[in-house]
Write a structure and sequence with these properties.
heterodimer, A: 9 helices, B: mainly alpha
Chain lengths: 264, 118
C-alpha cells in the first residue's frame, strides 16, 4: 500500500518540520498516515465543512503540540541550547523585540504621520539587531544559509533605513522595499533550521515577507479605489513579520544554558 | 519493580494520557484508531489531532505505560507505516488505579450530585 502521497499528505509533512527532529524521526510517518485517514473519512462524509474542519483542527493541533514538544525538548536536551548570550546580545534581542512591536503598533494605535518614519527605522534597526545577535550567537556553527540569509536581511534593512532617512521615493524606494521583505523572508528560511522558538519566528518571516510585499503600491496589486484580497493579505504579512522579529528577539533574550537535564 | 514502576508511585498521568490508555484498552491500536476511540468514549467531547495523539503516545511510551506491538494485520490490509500500541503491565496497573480513584470520587459526589439534578 504505497500509493503516491496526495497534496494533503505532502502539505501536512511540511508542517511536521515544526516538531523537533527526534520527534519527527520517530512519529512523522505515522502522523501523516493518521492525517491522511482523517482527510479520507472527511471526504467520505462528503461535507465541505468536515474537510475544512479537518484542516483547521490540524493547524491548531500542530501549533499547540509542536510548540509543546519544542519547549519540552529545550527543557530536557542540554545540547539543543546554545551558549548563554552576552549582555550586548540580550540588548540586541530587546531592540529586535521593540522593532517588531513598532511594526505592529500601527495595527493597534493611530500613529501620527510624522512618527511613521521613526517607526519604520526602529523596525529596520530591530531586524538588523536580531540578525547580528542570532548570527553572533551561532558563530561557532554558522551555516551557509544563515550567512546568506543574515547578509540579505542585514543589507536590505540597512538600505531601507537609508532610504527613509534620505526621504527617497519612486523606483529606489520600490526596490528597497522589495529587497527588505525578501531579505526578511530569506533570514526566516535560514533560522527555520535552528529549531526551538527560532523556528516559529522564522516561519512567520517566511510567510509574512512575501505576503507583505504584495502591498507595495508599485506592484499594482492593491489600490484604495478597487480593494483586492492583497490588501488584507499584505497587512497580515506585515503583522506576521512583526511577530517573527519579536519571537526571534525574545529567543535571543531568554536563551539559557542548561547544565543538566532536569528530572522529568 | 522499582518505585517508578508501581502504579501508585508513578508520576501523575495527564487527563489526555488517561484517555489514551483507556482508548487502547485491552487491544492493540494504531494512532487513528486511538483518536477515534477517544472521541467515542468521551461522546465527542475530546477530539485529538495527530499531534495530540502522538505527543501523548511519546510520553506514555517514555514512561513505560505503553509499548509498540509486533502483531499487525496482513501487509495487504494495512499501511506498513502504521504502528500498533498496547498497554504494558504498568500501564494496565495505572489504568486500574485511575479507575479506583475515579470510582471513589463518584461515590463521594453521587449522593448530593443526584439530589442537585432533581
Amino acid at each position: 500500500m504505497s500509493a503516491r502521497p496526495g497534496v494533503g499528505e505532502r502539505v501536512y509533512r511540511g508542517f511536521l518540520r515544526l516538531y523537533p527532529r527526534e520527534f519527527r524521526e520517530r512519529f512523522s510517518d505515522e502522523m501523516v498516515v493518521l492525517f491522511r485517514d482523517r482527510l479520507r473519512d472527511a471526504r467520505a462524509e462528503g461535507l465541505l465543512a468536515g474537510r475544512t474542519a479537518a484542516w483547521l483542527t490540524m493547524l491548531a493541533d500542530v501549533t499547540v503540540t509542536a510548540m509543546g514538544e519544542q519547549l519540552q525538548r529545550r527543557r530536557t536536551v542540554a545540547h539543543s541550547i546554545a551558549a548563554t548570550p552576552s549582555i550586548p546580545a540580550r540588548a540586541l534581542g530587546i531592540v529586535g523585540m521593540l522593532g517588531g512591536i513598532a511594526l505592529l503598533a500601527a495595527f493597534v494605535v493611530d500613529i501620527p504621520s510624522e512618527l511613521n518614519a521613526l517607526r519604520i527605522i526602529l523596525f529596520n534597526l530591530g531586524a538588523v539587531a536580531v540578525v547580528i545577535a542570532v548570527t553572533v550567537s551561532r558563530r561557532h556553527a554558522l551555516s551557509p544559509a544563515l550567512v546568506v540569509g543574515g547578509l540579505a536581511a542585514l543589507l536590505a534593512n540597512a538600505l531601507f533605513v537609508g532610504m527613509v532617512l534620505t526621504w527617497s521615493s519612486g523606483l529606489p524606494l520600490f526596490w528597497a522595499g522589495l529587497a527588505m521583505w525578501v531579505g526578511n523572508a530569506l533570514f526566516g528560511v535560514a533560522v527555520l533550521r535552528i529549531g526551538g522558538r527560532s523556528r516559529i519566528g522564522g516561519l512567520a518571516l517566511v510567510i509574512g515577507g512575501p505576503l507583505a510585499l504584495t502591498g507595495i503600491d508599485r506592484l499594482g496589486l492593491t489600490s484604495p479605489a478597487t480593494p483586492t484580497i492583497f490588501g488584507p493579505l499584505s497587512l497580515a504579512g506585515i503583522a506576521l513579520v512583526g511577530v517573527g522579529w519579536i519571537v526571534l528577539g525574545a529567543d535571543v533574550v531568554a536563551r539559557r544554558r542548561l547544565v543538566a537535564p532536569p528530572d522529568r | 519493580m522499582d518505585a517508578a514502576s508501581q502504579p501508585n508511585e508513578h508520576p501523575p498521568v495527564s487527563r489526555t494520557g488517561v484517555l489514551v490508555l483507556i482508548a487502547i484498552g485491552p487491544e492493540e491500536r494504531h494512532g487513528y484508531a486511538i483518536m477515534q476511540e477517544v472521541s467515542r468514549i468521551t461522546n465527542g467531547a475530546t477530539r485529538l489531532g495527530p499531534g495530540g495523539v502522538y505527543t501523548t503516545i511519546r510520553r506514555l511510551s517514555d514512561d513505560g505505560l505503553i509499548e509498540e506491538s509486533d502483531e499487525r494485520p496482513d501487509a495487504d490490509q494495512d499501511d506498513q507505516r502504521r504502528r500498533y500500541y498496547r498497554l504494558t503491565g504498568l500501564g494496565r496497573a495505572v489504568v486500574a488505579a485511575e479507575v479506583i480513584r475515579l470510582e471513589s470520587l463518584v461515590q463521594a459526589a453521587r449522593p448530593w450530585a443526584h439530589a442537585a439534578r432533581e
